[in-house]
Amino acid sequence: MREIITAVFLGVGTLAMLLAGLGMVRLPDLFLRLQATAKAATVGVGGLLCAAAVDMGSLSVVTHVMLTVLFLFAITPVATLLIARAAFHIGVPLWEKTRENDLAEKYSSKPPHSRAGPLLDGK
Known about the structure:
By secondary structure, this protein is mainly α. It contains five helices and no strands. This is Monovalent cation/H(+) antiporter subunit G. Keywords: Membrane, Transmembrane, Transmembrane helix.
């Protein structure tokens, strides 16, 4: 039974990492790619760590995995939000089909001018 649960956690973690990798390749701008990597860091790594905890089964490993997953779930969304706000402030352009820009409404009425380099512009 332990092997089946471990395999399920490994499958979930691997699938989340795979989908995040595809998102990094397919999504058009930095902000959408950040969303994909945040999912990979939380669900993917969490699934892989839970698989390790179930497979090893000792209280010490389970405690370390639970604290690590809790830390990931607390820190990753905050870090992603801070990176996205920093990118917005330096002028990384949004995808042309983006319909809502909540940060522009909050910080200024005009869109930011682009100071981002060609790597972040996607050109």
